[in-house]
Fold this sequence. Notes:
This protein is of the alpha+beta class. The protein contains 16 helices and 13 strands. The two termini are 33 Å apart.
Amino acid sequence: MSEVTRRIGLSLGADICWPICFEELVRRLDLKVPLDGDTVRVEVDRVTIEPYDLRAPRHYDVVLDRLTHWYHTSREWIKKVVLMDDTYVLNNPWSLQSMEKHTSYCAMMRLGLPVPDTWMVPPKEYEKSADLQPTLERYARLFDLGEVGEQLGYPMFMKPYDGGAWVGVSRIDNEEALKAAYEQSGKRVMHLQRSVEGFDLFVRAIGIGPQIRFVKYDPGAPLHERYRVDRDVMGEDEQRTLRRIALTINGFFGWDFNSCEALRQDGTFHLIDFANACPDSQVTSLHYHFPWLVLSKVRWALFCAVHRRPFRKNLNWAPYFEIADSDRSFDEKLEAYAAIAEEKYETERFEEFCATHLARLPEVADEFFASDTCRDAVRQKVAALFPAHEHDEFTGLFFDRIQKWRQEEGA
């Protein structure tokens, strides 16, 4: 029996807190998995940005990617290690690059999921180019924006078709506000989406592989209070439905890590934003929920690394569309969609891996999240975002909420 090492690479940007915790948990766990006559161990390090030979052999079995949205060099390196070296990457870089909000709305409408009515409008302004004027003269049609607003109905939201982090989003209550917002939209291509009025719950379903967590969300609160500490905000039937919805979305787009925003109105969850395949992972936002996120990343990354989980290099949507076009009820379709995702994520095999090889992880986590190392990771993130006179206050606030998690959900 020989000892083999699997390597996990963290491709990071401004992340501070969760990578420290991830690395320390894996180190303390000191995993040794008997597999095919060998003992598999796991190492973690951070991916650097530098020149690379396209034919250079791989260094990593798994990469957790947080840069694809912003850094082209990192994105293209990640594509290289998938294609050349069979590296497993969280998340699919091609899907992240091409599946913006617009595509996700269209796809889930096609599957019959409850997405609010949405229109796309041409940009107010265009980038200058040699072909711009003849193209617009031949094909651009004058339109009455007020008429579009009347057909969609007020209130509505205007938001970039590919946006994120609430940038460029505005609530619109009448035609005057619609025209004013459009005048300010510049070169952005915008969606107009009918508002879900009278909702009684705003939930974010955070998915990491087959692990789904439901968090009550308040977008109007300060950043550090938006993820609410409230637990058990839904019944079992609603949790099952929203889990299936989140798995359907994530499995459809090949995402290991995503966040789905849903508003509950009269017992139905309306999906307003679910192309968040690089969601907030910081303790300054997640606080109470932060340990769950880190542990879920650890479990899924270790499972993928130890078993050298094969990366799906293409997305097969045909089975979803066959279900969508069938005469099944919505609940039956949703169950069938989710079953495809459960198979893709190998849920049963993953749960068996966790029970067999990660049984010590809750104990290790309980000790770590009470440690000075964890508190220092929290403080480092706080220091990067808050003024100096608030460092002690917010470090204490976030660390105390982690201790609350330990008491209520830990080992």
